[in-house]
Here is the input.
Amino acid sequence: MAAALIVTDNAIEPGHRTTTEELVMHRSTAQTPPPTSTRDVARLGGGALGSVPPWLRHADRMLREQFDRPLTVRAIAAEVGVHPVHLSRVFRRIHRASIGDTLRSIRVRYACARLHDPRVELADLALSAGFCDQSQLTRAFKRVVGTTPGRYRAKSRRVALSPVLPVHPSPLLRTNSSSAALDSET
Here is the structure.
């Protein structure tokens, strides 16, 4: 009988004897938790519980500083000194996003900041942000922001040009008829 088998190695709680049936139920209902044991942290390459390994901080820094260059997981892993698969898994576990998604997001944020300048051409912006061409920038931009770079630029211009009215208008901005009505009430 499967329920009668006793599992001691993969117990749900340390020191607790768990049946195979309990283990299967636990694994099917539980989500992957963050690393909590010292064994998990050591496997991830961290020091104290919950800390980020130094090589992962170096990989983050590379993404932020070299986003405009062609970066591959293999090149980043070679630079930080870990296997590419290990880098990808730990990066995703810590950041809740892949290296490619994170790099794309950094590039799009850079593009958003530069789109406020109307003199910057989209093709030049795409190349300076690390994209191969304008169409790749547009696809990534739409995926991250939800609109195209051209529409984003037009909307940011409209917002910048629209007058900002105070929430509570000053008494000096009232029309004569409204100020006369206020004077008659007092």
Observations:
- DSSP finds ten helices and two strands in the chain.
- The CA atoms of residues 126 and 133 lie 6 Å apart.
- The two ends are 91 Å apart (CA to CA).
- Confidence is low (pLDDT under 50) at residues 1-42, 168-175.
